[in-house]
Amino acid sequence: LFYVPAGSTTPAAVPPGSIFLLSSLARYQQGFGIPPNLKAIPPFSLLPHVGEPLTDAEIITPAEQKIFSDTIAAYNATITSEASARSIPLADIKGLFDRLVQPQVFGGVALTNTWISGGIFSNDGVHLTDIGYTLFANEYIKAINSGYDTHIPLASVAATFQNNGQFTGFGDNKGYIVVTPEAAAAMTSIFNGVED
């Protein structure tokens, strides 16, 4: 695939590791970004815009991804520093997602932060699933409890799975999942960072 890099008028190959934006899907489907030497070859010959480059705004290159990552790290460092200076509890959401890089398996269900198949993010890759929001909320509850010496109970991970059985493939025809006491204890331990 090829595109016109920012600040250039000359098309270039899309750098390996680039992210293609879903918002440009219709343009990809019309052949934008497919090299001109494929224009006469079926099925590419059926697409009206083969040979026309993508724009820089339609992809995120690895260099741009690094800028995003560095900027996010700088923001997070500032937030952490300012919260600490003011004795404000801070929920470690990044830590939650970092822990979910490795699959957490229980009752036959593995959860990771992988888009679509991981179970934590919805299909749009931005919003969380019910279980993702439960884990997210629990991070805030843990921070509040720790910072203000409160005892707000954590949201039940097991109940979230029980209410979403149809999505995990372990539910009955009403959408409820059967979770053994052992599996429920394992879920609570894994996701709430509590050791039995």
Report on the structure:
The N and C termini lie far apart (52 Å). This protein has helices at residues 25-29, 62-85, 93-99, 130-148, 157-162, 165-168, 181-192, and strands spanning 2-4, 12-13, 19-20, 54-55, 59-60, 104-106, 109-111. With 196 residues, it is mostly helical. Mean pLDDT is 84; it is low at 169-173. It is built from 7 helices and 7 strands, in the order βββαββααββαααα.
Strand order of the largest sheet: 2-1-4
As residue ranges, the low-confidence spans are 169-173
The percent of residues in helical segments reads: 25-40%
The portion of residues forming beta strands comes to 5-15%
Structural class based on helices, strands and sheet pairing? mainly alpha
> What's the Cα radius of gyration?
23 Å
Please tell me what the overall shape is.
Answer: elongated
Instruction: Give the N-terminus to C-terminus distance in angstroms.
Output: 52 Å
- By DSSP (H or I, 4+ residues per run), the number of helices equals 7
Count of extended strands: 7
Q: Order of helices and strands, N to C? A: EEEHEEHHEEHHHH
The major pleated sheet works out as: 3 strands, mixed
Instruction: Describe the oligomeric state of these chains in a short phrase.
Output: single chain
Mean pLDDT: 84
